[in-house]
Amino acid sequence: MTAYYPMMVKLSGKRCMVVGGGTVAERKVAALLEGGADDVIVVAPRVTDNLDAWTAAGRIALRRKEYEHTDSEGAFLLIAATNDRRLNSGIAAYADRQGRLVNTADLGDAGSFVTPSVVRRGALVIAVTTGGASPALTALLKRRLAGQYGPAYEPFVERLHALRRRVLAEVDDAELRAAVLRLAAEELPAEDGQGTIGGGGTAADAIEQWMIRLLQAAERGR
Ligand SMILES: C[C@@]1(CC(=O)O)C2=NC(=C\c3[nH]c(c(CCC(=O)O)c3CC(=O)O)Cc3[nH]c(c(CC(=O)O)c3CCC(=O)O)/C=C3\N/C(=C\2)[C@@H](CCC(=O)O)[C@]3(C)CC(=O)O)/[C@H]1CCC(=O)O
Ligand SMILES: NC(=O)c1ccc[n+]([C@@H]2O[C@H](COP(=O)([O-])OP(=O)(O)OC[C@H]3O[C@@H](n4cnc5c(N)ncnc54)[C@H](O)[C@@H]3O)[C@@H](O)[C@H]2O)c1
């Protein structure tokens, strides 16, 4: 099996091109948009109703035509998702030579990256892949993780972020700082992720009180 290096890529301002307009292409486009892409071009003679609607709404641009290599000029990233295997691998080979990141929806390791399945809870992103060994297992694990790490994680991560900024600014002792941040992370939402922790949101005085409580607990633990 091919080995893969996982990373989180910033896509804002980068041209992303999806070749093909079927249900697989639609899923890839949705994932790009969720991932912050703001310059997505689809090249395909026929597209799904959703891709048509997203074009009409100005969320993506559509070139309603058969793909040619000149289309890929300026693309930072390409996804080949047509139902033509030879075309997909041709796109991958050409894009690779041009130094562009490329994914093929049919033959995973013909491209330079594969797309994971993703659970998003605000800044928390859980990505799963089997590198093409079993997309069905990937989808199953994603459903399980989505249940285990529920919606309560989004506000929890926001609170942790607010706390961390405060602690970095106010606690000089590196060991104490690490202890406070570790204790804070341990106040996980309930196992199903549906509950809330301590309430309070990200208001400055709520974060302040949380920090004081954690500092006391960390001091006791020394
Ligand atoms: C994660 C996800 C992301 C996404 O696509 O957005 C994704 N596949 C998903 C689902 C899924 N795909 C397929 C099934 C049917 C069950 C089955 O066949 O097992 C299901 C399950 C379902 O639909 O429930 C069929 C399938 N997939 C690939 C082939 C071609 C081949 O293997 O040759 C075929 C056969 C096509 C055919 O029949 O011709 C190839 C790839 N699919 C990948 C990603 C990459 C490796 C990911 C990994 O291994 O972890 C890779 C290599 C390339 C790539 O696309 O990057 C998304 C989960 C969405 C979610 O739920 O979040
Ligand atoms: N990665 C995955 O998760 C996954 C899942 C299922 C299937 N697949 C693979 O993905 C491929 C696409 O699946 P689908 O269900 O979206 O297919 P589909 O038949 O619904 O759509 C194919 C699309 O490709 C376009 N196309 C064909 N020739 C083209 C060309 N020359 N230039 C530009 N566009 C062209 C068509 O217009 C159409 O929009 C299949 O080959 C399948 O093997 C991948």
TrEMBL record:
<comment type="pathway">
    <text>Porphyrin-containing compound metabolism; siroheme biosynthesis; sirohydrochlorin from precorrin-2: step 1/1.</text>
</comment>
<dbReference type="Pfam" id="PF13241">
    <property type="entry name" value="NAD_binding_7"/>
</dbReference>
<feature type="domain" description="Siroheme synthase central">
    <location>
        <begin position="121"/>
        <end position="147"/>
    </location>
</feature>
<dbReference type="InterPro" id="IPR036291">
    <property type="entry name" value="NAD(P)-bd_dom_sf"/>
</dbReference>
<keyword id="KW-0520">NAD</keyword>
<dbReference type="GO" id="GO:0019354">
    <property type="term" value="P:siroheme biosynthetic process"/>
</dbReference>
<dbReference type="Pfam" id="PF14824">
    <property type="entry name" value="Sirohm_synth_M"/>
</dbReference>
<dbReference type="InterPro" id="IPR042518">
    <property type="entry name" value="SirC_C"/>
</dbReference>
<dbReference type="GO" id="GO:0043115">
    <property type="term" value="F:precorrin-2 dehydrogenase activity"/>
</dbReference>
<dbReference type="InterPro" id="IPR006367">
    <property type="entry name" value="Sirohaem_synthase_N"/>
</dbReference>
<dbReference type="GO" id="GO:0004325">
    <property type="term" value="F:ferrochelatase activity"/>
</dbReference>
<dbReference type="InterPro" id="IPR028281">
    <property type="entry name" value="Sirohaem_synthase_central"/>
</dbReference>
<keyword id="KW-0627">Porphyrin biosynthesis</keyword>
<keyword id="KW-0560">Oxidoreductase</keyword>
<protein>
    <recommendedName>
        <fullName>precorrin-2 dehydrogenase</fullName>
        <ecNumber>1.3.1.76</ecNumber>
    </recommendedName>
</protein>
<dbReference type="InterPro" id="IPR028161">
    <property type="entry name" value="Met8-like"/>
</dbReference>
